[in-house]
Specification:
transferase; about 30% helix; 5-stranded mixed beta sheet; about 650 residues; alpha+beta; about 25% strand; Methylamine Dehydrogenase, Chain H; ubl conjugation pathway; 3 domains
C-alpha cells in the first residue's frame, strides 16, 4: 500500500524497493503503464500525490504527506506512529463493525420473530375464518331443522284436528310430535328406547372438549344426547360424520346416472319393487318439505343417528350346537337365508350343506341341533346362495371350480356347471331374473349361467382372481365383482367388453361386495376396512373416492363375511368378533365377541387363531346369524 511505501521512504533510501512491481500493485491508484508509474513515483519524491488518492483517500494521503515531510525532524517517530489516530483507526472500525454486526443480527432476529408471529396470526385467522364458516353452517342447519320441526308440528296438529272431527278416523292415534328437548325426539324403530336413558354423566364429561365449562355442562346434561353414554363416547366421530355428510354433494332429483341399467316395467317407469334382499324401506312420499332440496343432508344423517341409537347390544338368541363339532374341519365359509327368512343354510370345508329352520333353533333349547336337510358334496364349499324366487333352489360353489344348483326339497343336484378352471369363490342369484346365476373364480373369470342350461351364457375375463360377485338389487343387466387386484368392477352385461366403472380405494384383496340399495355398494377387503361407494355420483369410468370408510374390525388375511340389511352392515373380525356398522357412520354401532370354549370341557380357552368366517342377516330384520372358524354358529339379535 502507498502508506507502507511512505514508511519505507522515511527509514530507507532503497528506492528500488519503493519502485518494485510487487509493491506498486498494492497502490490505491493502479497504473496503466510503466511510464505512468515512473511519473507517479517521481512526483512522490516531491510529495506530489495522485489526484485520485487525494480525492478518495484523504486520510491516507494526509498520513503519507506526514511521513514524507521534507524536514526529517518533523517526521513522526515510531512511538508517534503507533499512537497515531490513523493507525489506531482500524481497531475502532473493527469495534464499530462488530457492533454493527451485532445490531444487524438483533434486527434479523427481530424480523424472524416478527415473521413467526405473523405466520401464527395468519394461521389462526384462517382457523377463525373456518370456524366462523362452520358456525354459520351450524346456524343455517339449526334453522333448517327448526323449520322442519315447526312444519311437522303443524302437520301433527292438523292430523289431530281431523281425527277429532271425523269419527271414521277417531280410532287412529294422533301423531305425537314432541319438542326437541324430549328424549323421544331422537326417534328410532323403538320409539321409547330404554337404552337412551342411561344417566352416566361422569363418563359423558370425559368426552367433552376441555374448553367446555362445568356450568354449561350442568345446564345441558338434561339433553337426550347426554342420556346415551354410547353416543357421547363417540361424539367426536359423530361430529366428523355430520360434517362429512354435510359437505357431501346431494344427489340431484331424478333418475340416477346409471338408471339405464335398471329394469323397466311395461309403462316405462323404473321398477323399484323391494324384494327380501332389498334394503329399500319405502318410496318417498309425494309431499316433501318445501326446502327439501336444500336440506337433503338431514334425512341420511338423521336416519343414521336414530338407527345408531336404536340398539344397545347384540344378544344371543340361540347357540347352534352340532353333533360334529369335534370335527377339525368345521370352518363355515358361507351362510344364506331362503326367500322367506324361514330357513338358513351353512356350507364350508366339511363338504356339507346344512339347512336349519331358524325359529325352531330359537324357540327350542336342545343339546344338539340337527339340520332339516343335509347335502354332501365332493369338495370343500366356498359359497352358497338361495334363489330369491324359487324357495327350494340353492346354488353352491366349491374349491374344484364346480358350480351346482340344488333342489333342497329333494336333496339333489339339479344342474352342474364345470367350465371354471380353478376354485370358485362366490355365486349369486339375480333377484330380477331368478333363472340367472353368476360365479367368480380364481381363474380370473366371471361366468353367467342359466339354471335351465348346463353351459354359461356369458363370461367376463380379467387378469386377477375374482373373489366375489353380486347382482344389483332388482337388475339383471349389470353386475359388480371384487378382485385380488384391490379393485371393484361394475359391468353393464349388455356391453361386457369394458367395465361401466372401476372402484379404486382398497389396498388389498377385495373379498366381498354387497349392494346396500340400487345405487350404493359396500365392499370388504383384507386391508381392515369396509368402503361404501355411490355409483350414481361417478362422472367417469373410475371412482376413487368412497362415500364412507368403516374401520374398527380386524381383517388382514381371512374372509370374514359381509351382509347388509336396512342400512346396517355386518362383518366378521379376526378377533373372533362380529361388528355391525350403519352406512351413515364410520365407527361400529355394535359388536359381539364369540367365546373360545373347549368343546369337551366347556371351559373358555385362549385361541387367537379363531375368527368369524361368515355372517348373514335374516332378511331385513334385526336378527343375524354368524359363524366362526371352528364351526360355532350363533343367532344374534340387536336389542
Amino acid at each position: 500500500m502507498l502508506v507502507h511505501q511512505a514508511l519505507a521512504l522515511q527509514t530507507s533510501t532503497d528506492w528500488e524497493f519503493f519502485f518494485s512491481s510487487s509493491t506498486c500493485e498494492q497502490l490505491f491508484c493502479p497504473f496503466t503503464s510503466s511510464e505512468d508509474k515512473s511519473r507517479t513515483m517521481s512526483s512522490l519524491r516531491h510529495r506530489v500525490l495522485p489526484p485520485q488518492l487525494l480525492l478518495k483517500w484523504s486520510k491516507e494521503a494526509s498520513f503519507c504527506l506526514w511521513l514524507l515531510h521534507p524536514e526529517p525532524s518533523s517526521r513522526p517517530k515510531i512511538g508517534e506512529l503507533l499512537q497515531s489516530d490513523f493507525l489506531n483507526e482500524p481497531i475502532n472500525n473493527l469495534e464499530e463493525l462488530e457492533a454493527a454486526t451485532q445490531l444487524r443480527e438483533r434486527i434479523e432476529e427481530q424480523e424472524l420473530l416478527l415473521e413467526f408471529l405473523l405466520l401464527i396470526q395468519q394461521r389462526k385467522q384462517d382457523a377463525a375464518d373456518k370456524l366462523q364458516d362452520t358456525i354459520s353452517l351450524l346456524c343455517s342447519d339449526i334453522e333448517e331443522v327448526t323449520k322442519h320441526q315447526v312444519f311437522l308440528k303443524k302437520k301433527g296438529d292438523t292430523c289431530k284436528e281431523r281425527g277429532e272431527g271425523d269419527h271414521l278416523t277417531s280410532n287412529i292415534p294422533a301423531l305425537n310430535v314432541v319438542d326437541i328437548d324430549d328424549s323421544s325426539s331422537l326417534g328410532s324403530r323403538k320409539r321409547f328406547c330404554p337404552g337412551l336413558e342411561i344417566h352416566n354423566v361422569e363418563k359423558c364429561d370425559d368426552n367433552l372438549d376441555e374448553s367446555q365449562n362445568s356450568d354449561t355442562f350442568v345446564e345441558s346434561q338434561e339433553s337426550p344426547l347426554f342420556r346415551s353414554s354410547r353416543l357421547m363416547k363417540n361424539f367426536k366421530k359423530l361430529e366428523s360424520a355430520y360434517f362429512l355428510t354435510r359437505c357431501r354433494p346431494v344427489r340431484p332429483p331424478g333418475k340416477p346416472s346409471f338408471a339405464r341399467n335398471l329394469p323397466v316395467i311395461s309403462d316405462g317407469r323404473i321398477s323399484i319393487v323391494a324384494t327380501e334382499r332389498s334394503s329399500i324401506n319405502s318410496i318417498a312420499p309425494k309431499q316433501q318439505f318445501t326446502e327439501g332440496r336444500r336440506s337433503g343432508w338431514i334425512s341420511p344423517f338423521l336416519e343414521g343417528l336414530c338407527k345408531y341409537l336404536s340398539f344397545s347390544k347384540l344378544k344371543v338368541k340361540a347357540d347352534l350346537k352340532q353333533g360334529d363339532l369335534l370335527n377339525s374341519s368345521n370352518l363355515v365359509c358361507s351362510i344364506s337365508f331362503d326367500r322367506d327368512g324361514e330357513f338358513f343354510a351353512t356350507a364350508g370345508v366339511n363338504k356339507k350343506i346344512k339347512v336349519f329352520e331358524c325359529d325352531t333353533i330359537i324357540n327350542e333349547a336342545r343339546d344338539i341341533h340337527y339340520p332339516v336337510v343335509e347335502m354332501v358334496c365332493r369338495s370343500k364349499l366356498s359359497s352358497i346362495c338361495w334363489n330369491s324366487y324359487i324357495k327350494s333352489q340353492l346354488a353352491s360353489s366349491n374349491f374344484e371350480g364346480v358350480v351346482q344348483v340344488w333342489d333342497v326339497t329333494r336333496s339333489q343336484v339339479v344342474t352342474e356347471m364345470r367350465e371354471h378352471e380353478r376354485r370358485v369363490w362366490s355365486v349369486d342369484f339375480s333377484s330380477a331374473d331368478p333363472t340367472m346365476l353368476a360365479s367368480g373364480s380364481d381363474d380370473g373369470s366371471v361366468k353367467l349361467w342359466s339354471i335351465n342350461q348346463g353351459v354359461s351364457i356369458g363370461s367376463i375375463k380379467t387378469k386377477a382372481n375374482i373373489c366375489c360377485v353380486q347382482f344389483p338389487l332388482d337388475s339383471s343387466c349389470s353386475i359388480a365383482f371384487g378382485s385380488a387386484d384391490h379393485r371393484i368392477y361394475y359391468y353393464d352385461l349388455r356391453n361386457s367388453k369394458v367395465p361401466l366403472c372401476t372402484l379404486i380405494g382398497h389396498n388389498k384383496t377385495v373379498s366381498y361386495v354387497k349392494f346396500v340399495d340400487m345405487t350404493n355398494l359396500v365392499s370388504a377387503s383384507t386391508d381392515n376396512t369396509l368402503k361404501l361407494w355411490d355409483l350414481s355420483m361417478g362422472t367417469s369410468r373410475v371412482i376413487d373416492s368412497p362415500v364412507q370408510s368403516f374401520t374398527g374390525h380386524m381383517n388382514a388375511k381371512n374372509f370374514v363375511g359381509l351382509s347388509v340389511a336396512d342400512g346396517y352392515i355386518a362383518t366378521g373380525s379376526e378377533t373372533n368378533e362380529v361388528f355391525v356398522y350403519h352406512k351413515a357412520f364410520p365407527m361400529p354401532v355394535l359388536s359381539f365377541k364369540f367365546n373360545n370354549t373347549d368343546p369337551l370341557s366347556g371351559h373358555e380357552m385362549d385361541d387367537t387363531a379363531q375368527f368369524i368366517s361368515s355372517v348373514c342377516w335374516r332378511g331385513q330384520s334385526s336378527t343375524l346369524v354368524a359363524a366362526n372358524s371352528t364351526g360355532n354358529i350363533k343367532i344374534l339379535e340387536m336389542v
